[in-house]
Description:
The complex is a heterodimer of chains A (52) and B (248). By secondary structure, chain A is mainly α. Chain A has two helices and no strands. With 248 residues, chain B is mainly α. Chain B has a domain of 142 residues.
Amino acid sequence: xxxxxxxxxxxxxxxxxxxxxxxxxxxxxxxxxxxxxxxxxxxxxxxxxxxx
Amino acid sequence: xxxxxxxxxxxxxxxxxxxxxxxxxxxxxxxxxxxxxxxxxxxxxxxxxxxxxxxxxxxxxxxxxxxxxxxxxxxxxxxxxxxxxxxxxxxxxxxxxxxxxxxxxxxxxxxxxxxxxxxxxxxxxxxxxxxxxxxxxxxxxxxxxxxxxxxxxxxxxxxxxxxxxxxxxxxxxxxxxxxxxxxxxxxxxxxxxxxxxxxxxxxxxxxxxxxxxxxxxxxxxxxxxxxxxxxxxxxxxxxxxxxxxxxx
Lengths: 52, 248
């Protein structure tokens, strides 16, 4: 199968799209896990009751 | 009556716990909708024929155009949120604005990068300082400035007001971006989809564009709600730590 002309530019554009999307999805998931973990720690130490 | 009901819904959403519950219910559906839209978009992109002049390079448009749409849409969303911060003082407004900025910056970068990947084989250059490209670059730099501002001021409410003013100033760039191809003689092509005399693109190549644009938009809404949930949790952590420090 022959690659289309300028295939490198097409691959670069779609590669960047995948990288940007995966990066944003990972940012949201990793941040969510980090925040819920810290909140669970604080709740376990009793800070949650003081705040509510 | 309808206005009153809408106002009540906004007031109820001002309660972060209610908002978090709503996000928890809506997010799985948004993820599924995004996946379906991307699956449909990718199939259409693969089936789309090559352009008679651009060849397969035309397929770069299917990521460049939706990214460009999101770059401006996200700034518009932040501008509404900025009004929410300055005028209505809605508690979630600056959360919405803060979390939209990195997503907007990422898609503006993607728009510029994909555009330059198309420009090199088609125009013979990665970049020209024409009005459309330059005004989008200015928006990208303003996104970075907003992110820097949010990270510089520690108190979220103070940062929110400063960022809201900068966002509204930056909103002046939106009509410049939109009409730059009409107001100035640019290398960037003019409007080719939303025209009074109809799109100037052949339907076979046009069809994947709206589907990919819907997929990108659904992904943005999903990411934005997720990031807003994270920001609310981060502010809870901050409050709990402050209370802990005061109690110590």
